[in-house]
Amino acid sequence: MTYTAHQLRNFIAKKMTMSHIYQPVMIRTLISKGGEATTREIAAAFLGKDESQLEYYEAITKRMPGKVLASHGLVERTSDGYRLLTDISALTKDQKEELLQLCDQREAAYLERRGGTAYDHRRASLGYISGSLRYEVLSRSGSRCELCGISNQERAIEIDHIQPRSLGGTDAPENLQALCYKCNANKGARDNTDLRAVREGHDHKQNGCLFCEPSGRVISENSLAYAIRDAYPVTPFHSLVVPKRHAATFFDLYEPERRAMNMLLDGVRNAIMSEDKSVAGFNVGMNAGEAAGQTVSHAHTHLIPRRKGNVEKPRGGVRGVIPGAANY
């Protein structure tokens, strides 16, 4: 099928539905290239419109080459950029050409020496994990940075390993988070709530703790948490999600453990609703401390399925106590 100029105009003006600028930019690029362009040329056109990437490289300019070249007395800051402390107007055409060629040669030599790894710091979020896993992490975060909350419409969002791969971090979903490029750059290879601290105490158990040894009751798990059916269910399929490490309350959990427990809650909820179509809602919650109704000193979250007509009030009228779950 061949579109006439009139049909193409009509599509652009009236039929094109957009969630971003990609379609018009791609069509413009194809037109400007005579009707055909490489994927790289189209990607370059997107990049030229991406303010978040320009912001990233503005920050790089100030933090790295600008600072280094200024320290050598080669450049100085201006109100909105940099000035080379060499009178370019006094150079001959041959001198300028020689300087440009030297810059090209140094760039090419560096790239050859690095063997194609020069931009791995920008490529990591694409190369380390699959597209489906990347989609899962972005969906989980609502396509927003999990630190500052900015959306992917305002700033590029990257997939970050909470515990860096270089320190033993895996591609498990609970070890991945969505960060904007600024937060990710500031984090670098360090993170105050990464899995290192969790890993160090991963095998920590407390003698006599009911939840430290689930005894074959596990119905689902990931690297940091597991799910079991409640031994005293308020309703059928009443489940508990428990961290593998012994932690007394919610407030003793590391952020990755909370993330891992939330992921299990989603999975167990979906499994329950698939198995029992009568489930219409859930009580979800955690008691923290004896005064709040916690009788087993090991953090755990209740997931109580509810069917129409079986919702009960909290025992004793105590606000915050999970309905019917005072056993735990």
* Approximate shape: elongated
Label the structural class.
alpha+beta
The strand count comes to 9
CATH H level, superfamily name of the largest domain: HIT-like
Considering DSSP H and I runs of 4 or more, what fraction of the residues is helical?
A: 25-40%
Give a quick account of the main beta sheet: strands, pairing sense, barrel closure.
5 strands, antiparallel
Order of H and E elements: HHHHHEEHHHEEHHEEEHEE
Kindly describe this structure.
The protein is of the alpha+beta class. The chain has four domains: 5-86, no CATH class; 87-118; 120-191, no CATH class; 218-317, HIT family, subunit A. Helices cover 39% and strands 13% of the residues. It has eleven helices and nine strands. It has helices at residues 5-15, 22-32, 39-49, 51-63, 65-71, 93-114, 120-127, 131-140, 181-187, 195-200, 255-275; strands at 75-77, 82-84, 157-161, 176-180, 218-221, 225-229, 239-243, 279-285, 301-307. A hairpin with a 3-residue loop joins strand 5 and strand 6. The radius of gyration is 28 Å and the shape is elongated. Mean pLDDT is 82; it is low at 314-321.
